[in-house]
Amino acid sequence: MNTQLYSLLSKVGLKEEAILALGQVWTKEINIAGKDFLIQPGRKENHLYFILSGTFRIYIEAEKEEVCVGFGYPNTLLTSFDAFVSEGSSGYFIQAIKKSKLIAIKRSDFYQFINGHLEFAQFWYRMLEQVLVSRMEREVDLLCLSPKDRFDKLMIRSPHLFQLVPQKHIASYLAMQPETLSRLKKLK
To answer: How far is it, in rounded angstroms, from Cα 150 to Cα 114?
Structure first.
């Protein structure tokens, strides 16, 4: 079993037997070059990924610009969630920012594992709830907060992004121009 995945699952309180069983079904290893796409809109996606190294941006194409909606970085899970859950086509681009390494599990294997391990199913649903709350908070932030307040919240919540992700992608994520982000960073 991959040691990074083992470490993450150990921290959330899963029993050793569940962790080891889950490690056996992460069978696909992927190496991807910087700027290459892991997922593109319109393609079916049936894998859940665990990022071992590298960084990704998740974005959509709007009228005349790319709009960043999230990031993936080491020791986190990544997928086009809309496609993974619905077994449909992705609505998102997921692009490597730099050379990256991932391991993957097929959707069918993942849900089969969940159905056989109640402890892990409970963990998965708690994690989904946390993600949903975070997404709702982000939506409110984008609608109600000033650019400075959005920047300040990101600095508190995810300061590591400023070391991993180019400024232009962070600016897009915060719904501001890169120049605005530069000015806000200088004020810190």
So the answer is: 36
The two three-digit tokens of residue 159, written as one number = 């300061």
pTM: 0.91
Q: How confident is the model at residue 68 (pLDDT cuts 50, 70, 90)?
A: very high
Residue extents of the structural domains in the chain: 3-116
11 confidence band (pLDDT: 50, 70, 90): confident
Which CATH number fits the domain 3-116, given the four candidates 2.30.36.70, 2.102.10.10, 3.40.50.300, 2.60.120.10?
Answer: 2.60.120.10
User: What is the amino acid identity at position 41?
Assistant: P
| Tokens linked to 161 | 């992004």
Rounded Cα distance between 102 and 32, Å, is: 8
